[in-house]
Amino acid sequence: MQTPTPNHLPRYQLSQWAKWFANDRRFHAFALDQEMLVLTDKFQKKHQHHVLSIQPAIGVESGWFWNTLVISQIDGQTLRFGGVDKKQSALLQVSMKRHVNQRIQRFYQEFAPALIQAAQEARLIFSGQHYIRRALAAHWIKRHATLAAGLKRPDGLQYLPSELHQDYQHVRPLIDNMDEQISCFNQAFIDRQAQLFRDFFDQVETNPLTEAQRKACIIDEQHNLVLAGAGTGKTSTMIGRAGYLIKAGLAKPEQILMLAYARKAADEMGERIRSKLGIQNLTVKTFHGLGLDIISQVEGARPAIDKMAEDDVLRAAFVDSQIQSLLEDERYRSRLLTYFLRFAYPYKSQFNFNSLGAYNAYILENDIRTMQGELVKSYEECEIANFLYRQGIAYQYEANYQVNTSGPDYRVYQPDFFLPAYGIYIEYFAVNELNQTPPFIDQTNYLAGIAWKRALHAKYQTPLIETFSYLKQQGRLTEVLSEKLQAAGVQFKPLPQNELLDQLNQLGRVSEFSKLMAQILSLFKAAYLSIKQLVEKADKHEDQERMRAAAHLFEPIYQAYQQRLRDNATIDFDDMIGRAIDYVESGRFPSPYRYLLVDEFQDISASRARLLKALMAQQAEASLFGVGDDWQSIYRFTGSDVALTKDFQAHFGDTATSVLDQTFRFNNKIGEVASRFVIQNPSQIDKQIRSLRLVEQPAVSLIKTDQDLTGIHSALDAIASKAKPSASVLMLARFNFKRPDVAALKRRYPQLSLQFMTVHASKGKEADYVIVFGLEKGEHGFPSEKATHPLLELLLPQAEAFAHAEERRLFYVALTRARHHVYLVTNGLNPSPFVRELVDGDYAVSIDEFTGPGFQEQIADIPCPACKTGWMVPRDSQYGSFFGCNQYPLCNHTERACQWCGGSLKIQGRFRVCENRRCDFVEPICPRCQGAMVLRKGPHGQFWGCSHYRKNAAFSCAHTEQFIDLQTAKVKSPVSAARATPGMV
């Protein structure tokens, strides 16, 4: 034990007897220094407690032989140190009290000036005279974080002088719960400002702003996102925001920059600013206009805009002319031909697909066609066809075999290729080295089919050359084919390059390639990449060889384009943004703007976002105000990145998000359908859009017809019968080539105001009624299933994982253009997946409103059992009615139809029974080959024979039966039972 003296801080160690017999003997020693009380337990482990965590009121409890020091902590915990010599305990108590008190007093002496400083700053920041930004509050917290320990002590008011008590009471809740305090301050500020500027918000637009719009205008976080649903008044909010900033004295007009995407939108906004606010010197620009102004100011002259920048057709023509010129160079010509012959389509092995439907979708999306223009069923077949073509070997694709093998239930045998000059057939078999088929092919039946084909060729002595999937995977497909053809005596007469190019030109392939290069050119420039960087991106792609080939073909086109701009001393729109970014980031352009207001923020691209950040970085108090709707982001193909809206705070920083949820446009029934549909994508921001117009009946109608014009006329007839004179009707399609004869329609419906647009062009428009047509499945359907070239994908924002995410938003845009009613025209035999979702999901859609001649009764609802993604639709042939997959010719699956009414048949035991309740057709199934048993007449009377029996044919089943009890089948059939149920039709 060491006795405390003025020069020594107390410390104590238990005696041996105390270690064994004293109460509260957990700790065997303690030492007190300037900052810490250190307690050592019997295992020599040290336990440290800061002096400032100890209460000065240190107690002593008396025992028989030893005393215990009772040390209370400010958090309510108690430390007990027993075994203290009775004579020493009082001295230790006094010494410890004195030291703790002195340390606390010294702490508050240092704490007081810091508290005064924090309180002074807090009164300025949290005065209630302005909106409190998170960054400012965070900075204040960071500067005064050391106050937290003192403010948490319960003895603050005891040690601080009375004149600091008010500062203490003011600062403590801010440190303890900053977020809640700021929310309260800001809400109070918003309420006061809304009341103070009530008259302004009532009159700034034709209709008074809603409460949500007013709140969005007042909130003044550094980064502000206003999610404005369709028809919720985003432009009015933009005008209100600009006016409020000026009226409230937060900004001068010249410190505000308003940005729009289209020149027309910017002009309209500028006119409204001048007419509604009476302000002349507020800057309203497009992004390109802003870029041009920045360049002009820095360079001292306004650069000329190249004509190609404003005319996509002219730019595409330039690219096309460059390609035609480059084709005179043998090296480029050879590269281009190699690209078309080897890399025009992405290669994906059939063994990488789990379903026939998924594989067929890959073929259809990429429109895989041969040099002769045939749509083939596999990439390998395309490679074989192109090899034959360029070697000058005439072939026929899927020509009928020389022996007719067709019948009521079998198609004619069509080998993959036939060489008429040699009588040779070529088959491609989808098997690997182990004779295994891809996962989606029935291996047993497929191998049996191969055996049957081999036997057929052997029977009729027709030469057959076989090729296999594994040859492609080994990179030897055309090499092995070449060897087999030469061994069979086939003469190769390779076509000259010019003839191959002529064929490509006739098929429009070079023109399509020119369009692709023009698209890549625009996106490449917007992405600020060098050719080297593009090649590096290509090298990382899974289809590396194809990507490199396209990149090398693009390079001289890009160089020629850039040289054209230099020669003409002009710039394009991408240069406007790119140079502006360079000038702002380098400081050569000093930004005068404190407030940036951006319309249609969901269309923002990475380059435009970079320009905004550069402008913001120049002004310490700058604020960004973006108004948009992630549900209406539909321009990814131009570089728009919806993630910049959905993850706004992650990209820009502290954000206040407001939601405009009351639409002035469409009624509640349109809103229910549109909102429910778009929010199926879980990555869309969840919003509840309320409609002012409330109706009870469905406001979305489905018209099922295979003729778009029939559907359009029907919809217009329905509208004309109920609409007011001059009611506006917007006719929308996914693609412009589906445009109807609008002039003829106007003559037929003079009482209506008719207009046609693509859905993309309709963004921002509205009408009383909307007709959406072309709602089919396929490359040019809605959603469009056309594949995007991977080189374009490298330059575009990352695609979303949810299927058809952007196309779903485009459909939402189409639906929400209408005020009163939407008519959806679809082909029921090949409906859009979106239409199928509306029907299967029991959306509030009227599906049986249009019936009779020219209309279809229902949507195809029998899934194809073969490809899993197609649907069985009724067809007719010389042998009668049947059902075939709507993905024919890629999926050849067929099923028998009712031979009486054409309805679908359901298997019940050994019978096929018509599912039409008005029909009694029952058909026995052949137990040997699953064909149909039909009643026939022979020399000995009637008998049942298989429909697959054909005399002298390759396919034949001779199964017969004398008697089949059809009546029993009808009685046992659940379909028949339903017919017999009273009240059933």
Which features characterize this protein?
985 residues, alpha/beta, 5-stranded parallel beta sheet, 36 strands, disordered N terminus
What report would you give on this structure?
The protein starts with 10 loop residues before the first strand and ends in a 5-residue tail after the last helix. It is globular. The protein has 35 helices and 36 strands. α11 (263-277) links the parallel β9 and β10 (283-286). α13 crosses α23 (544-568), α14 (330-343) packs across α23 (544-568) and α24 runs parallel beside α25. Residues 1-7 and 975-985 have low confidence and may be disordered. By secondary structure, the chain is α/β, with parallel strands linked by helices.
**Proportion of residues in helical segments:** 40-55%
Instruction: Label the structural class.
Output: alpha/beta
Could you give the distance between the termini? 106 Å
Radius of gyration: 40 Å
Oligomer: single chain
For the largest beta sheet, what order do the strands appear in spatially?
A: 10-9-17-18-8-19
Question: Largest sheet at a glance?
Answer: 6 strands, parallel
- So how many helices? 35
* Overall average pLDDT: 89
The low-confidence runs, each spanning 5 or more residues with pLDDT under 50, are 1-7, 975-985
Range of strand content: 15-25%
> In one word, what is the shape?
globular
Task: Report the count of strand segments.
Answer: 36
